[in-house]
């Protein structure tokens, strides 16, 4: 976390201290709770609410990647709201398994992170920063549908047979801005998810939302 800049969408490490048994991190106070808890209460986000939230997540990812950090475990438990207000800012937290990278570098580690939010290349053990973009798109899908694209049994089947295309019938109920985001972010081909080190497309709020 010391490698990351002060940013409104990344939790700030204020101080650390340790005693004989524990190591303590002092971070921003986020009283709005985990994104997961709010998603459970709301069940579904409107497209406008989802768009505002995904913009926060995308800005946090961009700041991480601009400073050569891959989070590797983006999911609703690792995102927190600053307060309880509707439209509160989201912050990325928990960089416990994050890793630094250099331009063009791929990692060939065992899969890490939360399986149902993991990109295909993470499962296949050759991944880079694009994997965070996939995770963000899965979160957006959950915002809009109230479910994940696949559950454990289906995901294990897909993992075994290398079939991971979420674009198509899965996203047809959503409006155009979100469909464009999914086309760029839930794409098996990593380069299509990324242009010049940035999230390819982030949907903008509009009157139709």
Characteristics:
single chain; 209 residues; alpha+beta; Transferase(Phosphotransferase), domain 1; three-stranded antiparallel sheet; two-stranded antiparallel ribbon; 6 helices; 13% strand; globular; disordered C terminus
Please summarize what this structure is:
Helix content is 33%, strand content 13%. The chain is built from six helices and nine strands, in the order E-E-E-H-H-E-E-E-E-H-H-H-H-E-E.
- CATH fold-level name: Transferase(Phosphotransferase), domain 1
Report the sheet-strand fraction: 5-15%
Based on CA atoms alone, the radius of gyration comes out at 17 Å
Q: List the secondary-structure elements in sequence, H or E.
A: EEEHHEEEEHHHHEE
The domain count comes to 1
What separation lies between the terminal Cα atoms?
Answer: 35 Å
* Biggest sheet character: 3 strands, antiparallel
CATH structural architecture: Orthogonal Bundle
CATH class annotation: Mainly Alpha
């Amino acid at each position: 976390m010391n490698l990351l800049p002060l940013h409104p969408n990344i939790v700030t490490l204020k101080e650390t201290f340790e005693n004989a048994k524990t190591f303590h991190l002092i971070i921003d106070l986020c009283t709005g709770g985990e994104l997961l808890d709010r998603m459970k209460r709301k069940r579904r986000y409107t497209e406008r609410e989802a768009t505002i939230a995904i913009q926060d997540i995308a800005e946090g990812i961009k700041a991480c990647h601009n400073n050569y950090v891959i989070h590797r475990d983006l999911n609703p438990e690792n995102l927190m709201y600053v307060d309880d207000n509707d439209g509160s800012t989201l912050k990325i937290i928990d960089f416990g398994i994050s890793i630094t990278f250099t331009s063009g570098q791929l990692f060939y580690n065992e899969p890490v992170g939360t399986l149902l939010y993991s990109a295909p290349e993470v499962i296949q053990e050759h991944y880079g920063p694009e994997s965070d973009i996939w995770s963000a798109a899965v979160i957006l899908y959950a915002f809009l549908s109230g479910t994940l694209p696949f559950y454990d049994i289906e995901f294990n089947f897909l993992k075994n047979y290398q079939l991971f295309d979420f674009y198509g019938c899965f996203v047809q109920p959503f409006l155009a801005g979100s469909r464009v985001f999914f086309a760029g972010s839930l794409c098996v081909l990593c380069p299509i998810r990324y242009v010049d080190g940035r999230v390819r497309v982030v949907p903008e709020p509009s009157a139709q939302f």
